[in-house]
Amino acid sequence: MAEWIDACSTDEIDEEDVMRWDHGGRTYAIYHAPGGAFYCTDGLCTHENVHLAGGLVMDHVIECPKHNGRFDYRTGEPLRAPVCVALRTYPAKVEGGRVLVQLG
């Protein structure tokens, strides 16, 4: 079973925003959803490997800053071209004011 890794404080990400998180030689994106939930996906767009942390977050959608492709960050589902390959998602939870992510 994969372990839970401490990624950041809940205070580090405003609601409806995204933060880049690098761990183990990989880049991830952590999202603070409306209502307080947190989510984690791969940090690079599946279209051209652009960092999603530079993109715009609206509701449960991340828009890539390069070509404006969109994903539902809760599921990784592509929502608008040019993206057509889903993002990988990872379980995230909050404990003691910290965002924990399960990788593996």
TrEMBL record:
The terms under GO molecular function for this entry are:
2 iron, 2 sulfur cluster binding; metal ion binding
Q: What is this protein called?
A: Rieske [2Fe-2S] domain protein, MocE subfamily
Q: Which InterPro entries match?
A: MocE_2FeS (IPR012747), Rieske_2Fe-2S (IPR017941), Rieske_2Fe-2S_sf (IPR036922)
What keyword terms does UniProt attach to this protein? 2Fe-2S, Iron, Iron-sulfur, Metal-binding
Q: Which Pfam families match?
A: Rieske
| UniProt superkingdom | Bacteria
In its UniProt entry, the species of origin is given as Rubellimicrobium thermophilum DSM 16684
Q: Where is the Rieske domain?
A: 5-101
> What cofactor does this chain's UniProt record say it requires?
[2Fe-2S] cluster
Q: Which family does it belong to?
A: Belongs to the bacterial ring-hydroxylating dioxygenase ferredoxin component family.
